[in-house]
Amino acid sequence: MRLRGGYSFADLWLCVLVVFTGLTGTASAGDALRERWAPRWTVSAEALVLGRAGAGNQSLVALVPGDVPWWTPAGPNTTNVPGAEVLNSNQLNQRLAAGPRIGISYRDPSGYGVELSYFNVLGLKASKSVGPETPAQWLVMKAPGTFWQTQDYAYQSMVWQDESRLHSLEANVRFELSPRVTLLAGVRWLQLHDQLQGTLEPADLGQPMWKFNVPSRLSDAVPVPDSPVVINPPFWTSSTTNNLYGVQVGARAILWEIERVSVEGLAKIGLFDNHATQLALVSMQKQIYPTEATTDAAAFVGQGGIAARYRLSDYVALKLGYEALWLGRVALAPAQIQAISTTRTTIAATGVNCRSSTLFQGVTVGMEYAF
After folding, report:
1. Who contacts 299 (Cβ-Cβ below 8 Å, separation ≥6)?
2. pTM of the full predicted structure?
3. What highest taxon heads this organism's lineage (predicted)?
């Protein structure tokens, strides 16, 4: 078919193609010029404020009525008085703690690049206290075997504290799939240390008489005359250290951008070897008995986050975001109570329980400089 002037549709499409090719070539040349002068290095410094949720499911304190004879001629009355649970480790959600994160990355004009980053968060803590109760109640903690712990006097509380430390070091190779999407693959090391400790507060006014009277009730808990004040050591301490070594993949994408403001999303997942250890220190008759165990197990890590970036200039930007880090198949301190076997004079670790998971989440704020 011919158009006015003797031109055909084929001639028209050829002209459009020539114009489009010229525009594309011009844009590509412009992109190449900008790419040549674009910053290649980026250094970032951030503050992380994270909290931890997930401390296993281990009973820590049960209540037994104070008029129940706890000490009988046959020994501790633990078989027929199980008690009512009032504190579980899943109630020990650690409050927020801050730590630094530093990173450096290099971006080649070809679209490939590398990045290295490190962060730590120390001092994640939770503490729960039970007692004293009205009317008076025995505060009881039990472990596998013969171990049991209660308060010496009705005025005392049983206090449990859980404290964690987290370190992370990673190195990734990057590839720009598109101007908005970057793929990641690399290696990572994480270390999670967790400690659970049980104590009685305040100190004993003296040697409790109920330990010498049979049968004994909480009302019998008065000091032996002229006995000195007794400072109780922690009756139970469990510590675990998880060293995770593995590989991960992920993606970073610009979700929204307008002028100086952009929003970026991040997701990573990895498979790790967890070299886990546990150490228990158990007080029996005011003597500390130690035991420990080590194992290796597969672990999983997932990380996600979203961050807003505001560019102060072509080289400096401010960042504010939310981040979550999930660790699966790790050893947490509360879970190790069931991995300890006790007699009246010995304790022994039967292994390391690596079937727990935990979640760290919070906010990040910082600055990055590109050059």
Report:
1. 242, 244, 246, 271, 272, 273, 274, 327, 328, 329, 330, 354
2. 0.85
3. Bacteria
Residue extents of the structural domains in the chain: 1-37, 39-370
pLDDT at residue 28 tops 50: no
Instruction: Give the type of residue at 61.
Output: V
pLDDT at position 10 over 60:
no
- Scan for tokens 């994408």, then name that residue: 253
- Structure confidence at residue 30 as a pLDDT band (50, 70, 90): very low
CATH architecture of 39-370: Beta Barrel (2.40)
Alpha carbon of 339 to those of 82, 243, 336, 355: distances in Å?
20, 19, 5, 12
CA–CA distance, 150 with 283 (Å, rounded to integer): 12
Report residue 150 as tokens. 């209660």
Q: At 206, is the pLDDT very low, low, confident or very high (cuts 50, 70, 90)?
A: confident
Can you tell me the distance from the alpha carbon of 38 to that of 34, in angstroms, rounded to the nearest whole number? 6
> Which pLDDT band, with edges at 50, 70 and 90, does 146 fall under?
confident
3-state secondary structure of 337: helix
